[in-house]
Design goal:
With about 220 residues, this protein is α/β, with parallel strands linked by helices. It has a single domain, classed as Vaccinia Virus protein VP39 (Rossmann fold), CATH 3.40.50. It contains 7 helices and 8 strands, in the order H-H-E-H-E-H-E-E-H-E-H-E-H-E-E. Strands 1, 2, 3, 4, 5, 6, 7 and 8 form an 8-stranded mixed sheet that branches. Strand 5, helix 6 and strand 6 form a beta-alpha-beta unit. The longest helix is centred in the first third of the chain and has 21 residues. The radius of gyration is 17 Å and the shape is globular. The chain starts with 10 loop residues before the first helix and ends in a 7-residue tail after the last strand. About 35% of the residues are buried.
Length: about 220
Amino acid sequence: MGKSSNIPFKKHEVEEYERKRYRGIDQRLVHGRERKILGKILQKIGNGSFLVLDVPCGYGRFSNLLLDKGFSLLSSDLSIHMVKRTRDKSGDPRFLLGVVADAKQGLPFKQGVFSLLLSMRFFHHVHEKEEREFILKEFSRITSEWGILSYYQKNLLHFLQRKFRKRIKKSKTRIKMISREEFVREVEEAGLRVVKIFPLFWCIHAHHIALLKKIKKVKKN
């Protein structure tokens, strides 16, 4: 993502982002690996009459993976143009609607309304611990069962690689890497537990995808 995650994409920016973001060989490998991991996770979750939230949905990179499982899908993003692009690409009747919302400010959905929440390539743009905690609590609030969340885990090799590439390309993009221990702790404090964490590429890439499960509160007699 080449701009601040707090600034909505305009229509022409969405078109440019979709055209260029995963065009390079390295990024095509990343895209393919992400889809493969998500496919494994969705297979583990199984089929069912799931209502799924994809937030932020971007231009709908993973919509077909969810729809192919028979899930009903609602997509949300900070940019209305991203939401429109996601819906326009699908045309599937199980694609319910799109909602413009900022996860950092709260999500306009009822408690436990979604069976599954998917959030890809968003969390590493959240730099403040307090914001991460708020977002995780929102995610925990609106899912009744499952969550899939990607994050960047501290990785020296990837950090040095980004630093080198940033110096060459003069990129303004900043990412936040956190330790696995931090991630697990923040997830659990929000009312979720980590089922399994899948590294994108062992040792050489910081991106990880986590399958989360809602912690069910035991009712006292």
